[in-house]
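Incident log, support desk, overnight shift.

02:14 A customer reports that sequence design results differ from what the structure should imply. Their input is reproduced verbatim below. On-call engineer (initials T.W.) acknowledged and began investigating.
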């Protein structure tokens, strides 16, 4: 078998399609192509072709994963769910996760800290609600406990900010409606009463 053409892809300029005996065989990124030292006219056997196809799949999977992470930071558990949906085999999953961890793309402690900061600042979420969200992201309980530990002051601050925000709406001038809303957001009844009393 012989490599008969190497063509730059139209949509992904950094990837190249490799043709073997005038038929498309696999594609590689520019770096992988250079590392493989492929050139037109090179003879390859079945085992080499299989190895290049495997390499192609791995590089494509890594590229798709980076694009998925680029939308927003992900926990390791979320990535495992993503790989399951993609039906990647366990070997590929382990390889991808190891590579992502080495490149610092995965760090559940950092993920949890950023998630808490975001929820506190933008949504004034309660500790209870944040804990539930992090569990849904498959973050380990010990990480959640460590990140959320000693955040009583942040909880009260978030509650006060949320009360201020909701008081601007006509429907939440009524204390009972506001208390019911805050309770649904995961804030403790005693904290709600105290915060409302302080605000009066």
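02:41 Re-run completed on a clean worker. Output:
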């Amino acid at each position: 078998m012989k490599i008969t053409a190497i063509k730059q892809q139209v949509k992904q300029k950094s990837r190249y399609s490799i043709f073997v005996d005038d038929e498309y065989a696999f594609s590689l990124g520019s770096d992988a192509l250079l590392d493989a030292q492929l050139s037109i006219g090179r003879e390859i056997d079945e085992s080499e072709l299989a190895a290049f196809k495997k390499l192609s799949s791995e590089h494509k999977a890594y590229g798709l994963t980076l694009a998925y992470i680029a939308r927003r930071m992900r926990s390791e558990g979320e990535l495992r769910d993503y790989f399951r949906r993609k039906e990647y085999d366990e070997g590929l999953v382990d390889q991808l996760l190891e590579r992502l961890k080495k490149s610092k793309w995965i760090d559940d402690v950092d993920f949890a800290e950023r998630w808490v900061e975001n929820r506190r600042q933008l949504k004034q979420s309660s500790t209870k609600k944040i804990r539930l969200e992090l569990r849904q992201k498959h973050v380990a309980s010990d990480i959640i406990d460590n990140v959320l530990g000693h955040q009583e002051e942040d909880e009260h601050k978030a509650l006060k900010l949320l009360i201020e925000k909701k008081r601007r709406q006509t429907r939440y001038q009524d204390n009972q409606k506001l208390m019911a809303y805050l309770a649904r957001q995961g804030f403790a009844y005693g904290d709600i009463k105290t915060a409302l009393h302080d605000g009066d």
